[in-house]
Amino acid sequence: MNTLTDRVTKAPLNTTWMGPSLSGLGHYLPPTTITNHDLGKIVDTSDEWISSRTGIKSRRRAGALQATSDLAVEAAHGALAEANLAVEDIDLILLATATPDTPVPATASLVQEALGAHGAGAMDLNAGCSGFLYGLHTAGAFVRSGYSQNVLLIGAETLTRVTDYSDRQTCILFGDGAGACVVSNKGQMDVLYSGVGSDGSHTELIQIQAGGSRSPASADTVAAHQHFLQLDGKRVFKQAVRRMSEAANTALEATGLQASDVSWLIPHQANERIMSAVAEIVGIAVPQVVNDIAETGNTSAASVPIAMDRARQAGAFKDGDLIMLVAFGAGLTWACQILRYNES
């Protein structure tokens, strides 16, 4: 089994900071809302059934003319404004997504063009719901190496486009949205620790079966609903709790921190029960868990940056707070970061 221990970066907690840091945050949620009552008109479900099992009351849906790149651009504008940077200051764009506009070209290139960031490199990154944290791990490596000064990192998804609304087990979960930040040497949130992991022996737990080189699109694959996102709910639940808990405990051990030192836990917003179980195992009190799922649903790679920015805008963070990010996704993949919030 793969572990995090050989794929981590960490920094002393009491030294002059040399990066990487998050120097801007932004997010975008489409205006159209799908409520649990709306879903109850489509499949055999109810608001009580959904909310009691997931914590979700509603989720957002992109407009008919909106694609993943459009949501990403909106979030990027917010991050650049918060960071007081112009598009010319960005030298690399990383887009974490499992729902690109098209297989080719990379959606990050479409974002680059829309922003006018013509001097920046651009590429997509797919690690499922762990994508934003994998992107932060990657962006941090570029910054620490000196190859990049300012990396625009975006997590964006239009999951409603790959949701099977005849499947009541999955259609209740997913929504659309985007979150972004700028990763540079100096910013408001220092990355003290970063680790990623993967176990490819369970790829069948979360997948879209068709549309790639293994099973190209055909009339048969469309008829069989193989272009929709499929997941094994019970097994995913167990793996998500296990992997995120292990990732969090590995981070605490690597940094010498205790669970009580963590001011805020921001988990991937997959399911309220998963988030609560992870917090309990790690030893972090529920009031310190950022729970943003009720109005957004599961937005995959966008969920952590959206939740983080909404918590920041609500005034949750104060100077010196230690913020733990943890996520789990298709692959299987998982990741964890510990950030230190600086008001100045």
Question: Which descriptors would you attach to this protein?
Answer:
single chain; 344 residues; Peroxisomal Thiolase, Chain A, domain 1; two-stranded antiparallel ribbon
Question: Can you tell me about this structure?
Answer:
The termini are far apart. This protein is of the alpha+beta class and 344 residues long. Strand 13 and strand 14 form a beta hairpin. The protein contains ten helices and 14 strands. The chain is globular, with a radius of gyration of 19 Å. Helix 3 packs across helix 4 and helix 7 runs parallel beside helix 8. Strands 1, 2, 5, 6, 7, 8, 9, 12, 13 and 14 form a ten-stranded mixed β-sheet that branches. Strands 3-4 form a two-stranded antiparallel ribbon. The chain has a two-stranded antiparallel ribbon with strand order 10-11.
CATH H-tier superfamily of the largest domain: Thiolase/Chalcone synthase
In the CATH hierarchy, the third-tier topology of the largest domain is known as Peroxisomal Thiolase, Chain A, domain 1
* CATH class identity of the largest domain: Alpha Beta
**N- to C-terminal distance:** 42 Å
Tell me how many strands there are.
Answer: 14
- Average pLDDT level: 94
Separate helix tally: 10
Strand content: 15-25%
* Structural domain tally: 2
> Judging from the principal axes of the Cα atoms, what is the shape?
globular
Structural class: alpha+beta
- Helical content (DSSP H or I, runs of 4+): 25-40%
Low-pLDDT stretches: 1-7, 12-16
Q: Can you tell me the CATH architecture of the largest domain?
A: 3-Layer(aba) Sandwich
Helices and strands, in order, run as EEEHHEHEHEHEEEEHEHEHHHEE
Rg of Cα set: 19 Å
- Largest sheet, strands/sense/barrel: 10 strands, mixed
What is the oligomeric state here?
single chain
